[in-house]
Specification:
Order of helices and strands: EHEEHEEEEHHHEHEEHEEEEHEHEEHH
Largest sheet: 7 strands, mixed
Radius of gyration: 20 Å
Strand order of the largest sheet: 6-5-4-3-2-1-7
Structural class: alpha+beta
Helix content: 25-40%
Distance between the termini: 24 Å
Number of helices: 11
Shape: globular
CATH class of the largest domain: Alpha Beta
CATH architecture of the largest domain: 3-Layer(aba) Sandwich
Number of strands: 17
CATH topology of the largest domain: Rossmann fold
Number of domains: 3
Strand content: 25-35%
Length: 347
């Protein structure tokens, strides 16, 4: 049996560059080597594309560029410029987060090159990346979510008092187009509002910031995989010491703990899974996504957001939830690649 020629893209131009490097390292250590012929492709912070053939440790420690060669993309592959060498691929696995990785940009580029890519397509990626668009679709489809108001860098925005009349304090202020909790702030009173808004705008590439009600409850998540038929992992639960599940909390578990399975009843878990599938369908997701929700103090479950390329270390939330459902990390990778390859066959 011929190996699948798999291109693994890491790095990128977003604030989540370092997260991508660690996910890529864990992915490359875990993948079934006998099934794939892997081509590693790095994107530098300034947007350059490179073919990398070095060791995994240099990716994780951000030393990979010293051993990388510039490339040009061509139909169904890459062209190594210095070596004048063509490398064809069957499928692309993007391990990218944030700008140009999760927003539909790399997905559109791969479509033009006729390369199947794992994960949501252009439409689903763009929708999930923009939290205002996500909220609007939730409203249209009667999917419960936090109350919100969107503020624009160029436009007439409501005043603090006008927002407070619609959504009582406290609030969460967050960029519409960012991840890993960059620019997210808990706002308890007026003195915290302006600085929170200014910082959130710094991380949003489209000049949009959400003001959301702060839900009285705790966060859970569901890993969803599939297209026509969906598989949902066991929900997990986040326990926080503070108000925001920030970068250190997510990736270093500083002031936070994650429980999988979540400490909720089987009935509540089943409800969360059904809501996760409804959100996944509503936002036009494909292949994989992590759906984040809140369990309110009154027992309701409301949607928070959807992550189309979740963390992919062996201990990240998405693989852990799927492992709890009986799918080991390496097998999960295989299933995701198969989904992407099937899409090409079905077009």
């Amino acid at each position: 049996m011929n190996k699948i020629r798999l291109g693994v893209i890491f790095g990128g131009q977003s604030s989540e560059y370092s997260v991508s490097l660690h996910s890529a390292g864990s992915f490359l250590r875990s993948v079934h080597q006998d099934r794939y012929e892997i081509t590693m492709i790095g994107i530098s912070m300034d947007g350059g594309f490179y073919h990398y053939e070095g060791n995994i440790e240099d990716i994780e420690h951000d030393h990979w560029q010293a051993h990388a060669k510039p490339i040009a993309w061509v139909h169904k592959g890459i062209f190594e410029i210095e070596e004048q060498k063509l490398i064809e691929m069957d499928c692309i696995f993007p391990i990218l987060h944030g700008k140009n990785g999760e927003d539909g940009s790399i997905q559109g580029m791969m479509n033009i090159l006729d390369l199947p890519i794992v994960g949501c397509d252009v439409l689903g990626s763009a929708i999930c990346m923009d939290k205002e668009v996500m909220h609007r679709l939730f409203e249209l489809n009667h999917i419960p979510a936090a109350k919100y108001i969107c503020l624009y860098a160029h436009g007439d925005n409501p005043t603090f008092e006008e927002i407070e009349r619609q959504i009582p304090l406290p609030w969460f202020v967050k960029p519409c187009n960012a991840g890993s909790s960059y620019g997210v702030h808990y706002v308890a009173d007026r003195s915290e509002f302006e600085s929170a808004i200014q910082d959130a705008f710094k991380y949003d590439g489209r000049g949009k910031v959400l003001v959301e009600e702060a839900i009285d409850g705790f966060e859970i998540g569901c890993a969803v995989m599939g297209d026509e038929h969906l598989t949902v992992g066991e929900p997990d639960e986040i326990e926080l010491e503070g108000k925001v599940f920030d970068f250190e909390g997510k990736y270093e578990l500083v002031g936070s703990a994650i429980y999988c399975p979540a400490r909720i009843s089987s009935q509540k878990a089943a409800q969360a899974k059904e809501l996760a599938k409804a959100a996944y369908r509503t936002l036009c997701c494909r292949d994989m996504a992590r759906v984040d929700m809140f369990v309110c103090s009154d027992g309701r479950i409301v949607l928070n957001e959807v992550n189309t390329i979740p963390g992919l270390t062996s201990t990240s939330r998405y693989p852990t939830m799927m492992k709890e459902a009986g799918i080991e990390f390496a097998d999960l990778i295989d299933q995701l690649v198969d989904l992407a390859m099937e899409k090409e066959i079905n077009i």
